[in-house]
Amino acid sequence: MHVTRRTVLAGAAAAAALTTLPAVRAPAHAAGNAAPAYRWRNAVIGGTGFVTGVLFHPAVRGLAYARTDIGGAYRWDDRSARWTPLTDHLGWDDWNLLGVEALAVDPTHPDRLYLALGTYAQSWAGNGAVLRSEDRGATWTRTDLTVKLGANEDGRGAGERLLVDPRDSDTLWLGTRHDGLLKSTDRGATWARATAFPATPSATGQGVTLLVAAGRTVYAGWGDSDGTTPNLYRTADGTAWEAVPGRPAGTSAKVPIRAAHDRHTRELYVTYADAPGPNGQSDGSVHKLATVSGGWTEVTPVRPGAGDTFGYGGVAVDARRPGTLVVSTNNRWAAVDTLYRTTDGGRTWTSLKDTAVFDVSETPFLSWGEDRPKFGWWIQAVAVDPYDSRHVVYGTGATLYGTRDLTHWAPRTRGLEEASVVQLVSPPAGRAHLLSGSRDIGVMYHERLTASPSRGMATNPVTGSATGLAQAAARPSYVVRAGWGDHGNGARSHDGGVTWTPFETQPALAKDAPGPIAANADGGVLLWSFVHWDGTRYPAHRSADDGRTWTEIPSFPKGATPVADPADPTLFYAYDTDTGHVLASTDSGRSFTVRATGLPAGDSQFKLVAAPGRSGDLWLSAKWNGLYRSIDGGASFTKVDSCRSSYTLGFGKAAPGADYPAIYQVGSTEAVTAVHRSDDGAKTWVRINDDAHQWGWTGEVVVGDPRVYGRVYLATNGRGIQYGEPV
Fold it and tell me: Secretion signal: which residues (predicted)?
């Protein structure tokens, strides 16, 4: 699951996409100086997000594709056993396109690949787009749609909503959530409403949930049925559509989730649930349709019941063995989700979970702080290799598992990184060059950047989404963290983040509103701010005894991020975005008073940071309003003219011969929002990423390495931790 920044277009039965833009590979933009060459890679964690779809190419051995809810699409290379990201070129303005609603391949043209992109269908989100490739995703041509897609909304784990017509490779179908069924007759270059499709779009529903070919017939699932109206349609000629007769009835068959066709037996298998999922499903079933005779047969492995509620999700047939297929349960928390496999068309089933042996040594976080890993949750993406019946993969809310013998399972995530990262610290000393905090998977200690952290998630306690991570500047062995957890929401470390101890007590607010946390320069004082997930802000609290006791700070602006002075342990700062005031404390956080006023107020994206090793040297990134600096502890600020907009800013080791730390920034010095570095105190900037490495939304946090000049760590919303180094 990912929590990220979040009118339906009714649309007439006319063109649904009007603009076609060719792919352009422009040279890297540079401001001030020539742009240095950088090599960008992921700091390895391994998966960490919801893999919503996996598709083996039916005609090419070892070729597969995966889609994610917020982290783009990937291509699998069986020879190297790695995933290659295909959408990192999407930039800041296209952040909403990092969610992949659906993907499609052309069985008769192996190099063709299509992606339907769009993360949210809300009024504040941009429209969707279709990317088309003739070289397996190496380069793209783009068509902008006039409708919205929802790759990170309910129903995102449902079947592929994009399909190449089995009768004509030039014809494509695209199912939308609120705008019905679209059709293209020029390989995705332009799209128009399929007016003959009989289902009526809803402003709040799911619309088309799946598209699948069964021979020369195309089937479409419909998620807006009330349980009595049709929810599965078909066309045999690409023009006329009809509701499939005799469909299963009842709440267990309300929403068709996924479908797969067995070409040997001419049967279409459909999984159903009472809700689109991945959350909220409590009933479900599996049925098969004999496409020649029209007869339906229920083949549900286990019916949900009291105390064991769930829906059915993924379904994949074995292309080599008639009547052999795999289905998955979804949202099953009591007995835990599983895969069921049948070799006799659904008459009998075997639970693969019951004999599963897991090896998560490559991605230890998957143990979730326990003795052994779980089979997974949110299992809606399932695929069987058409060239190897025992090669099965399935996606979960955190990874992609695979097996070659139906018994031994291991993550299949090399190259696939989908974390939504919100905290980064690069220590000035110690074994680790990086500590990170992410949504859903908490805090990690990275001994190596090229391997998943050996300790997995920070434990004692285990927390989910991280809300705070801070290091004492003059005592780097002391680190504190905060986040959402069931057994305490804050902890401290005295060995640089290797091991943790929970705070002896925590303010009552911490249970429901854990927020950012800070430690002063020597680690003697902690400030903890509190923000509920709905945005409600509460008073901050202070501890001067390592988290044993806490007292409220009435003068601290509610919900603000506390910033510790890196040199003077008596100083703290805060930026009140509601008023545009910077406040400071000179008594170790006991009280705060207003210093600078007149700064940008109401800016939705801001970050106040202190330059390392200096007292009172503050920098304020204020999104549309640019960058400001104070050298007097926040008493006054000067606007930095070299920067048009600034989203986040951090520091790293100074350039050789320089007397000020290198500054790294996500922002714009001219027209392009990009990653920049300055070696001269923000007088000039150079862009250090390029058009092939943009990763959509990157405005959360950036920090340089204090021990390695030029190395920078960048948090992304869906593409994990990117780190760049000069070539």
Answer: 1-30
